[in-house]
Amino acid sequence: MYNKIVVMYREAPTDKSDWWELYEPFEETLSDGSTILIPAGYVTDFASVPMLLWSFFPPIGKYNRAALVHDYLYDLQYRQKELGEKSARKFADDQFLFLANKILPNDNFRHLIMYLAIRIFGLYAWRKSK
Q1: Which residue segment(s) compose the domain that 20 sits in?
Q2: Average model confidence (pLDDT) for the chain?
Q3: Which helix (H) or strand (E) holds 63?
Q4: Backbone phi, then psi, for 23, in 5-degree steps?
Q5: How far apart are CA 15 and CA 114, in angstroms?
Q6: For 89, left (φ over 0), alpha (ψ -120 to 50), or beta?
Q7: What is the pTM of this model?
């Protein structure tokens, strides 16, 4: 069974996205077997999806775990000193795909589209986290 994500709504400083704050810490195992602990108080918008695509790829829902972990890895720039920017960002993006496949193993095509969007458009968000 999966860890439960306990969040509360938090008003965003702009009208562009909704923010959610972790009410309890959240732990997840990554594809390499390591575990990451996201602390209570961490704020996420889950998936940053343009409103036009929400009916196909909702920003909140089934993939909250994958989006939460991905956001956290981006904010930490997880493993960047060890791997370099390009490889660290790819590792974070790969975790989204890994967790999406773990959540819904039979929806690989949708996951691949989401993953490719993250790979294409994620660089700005990664560099913004610096």
Answers
A1: 7-128
A2: 81
A3: none
A4: -90, -25
A5: 24
A6: alpha
A7: 0.82
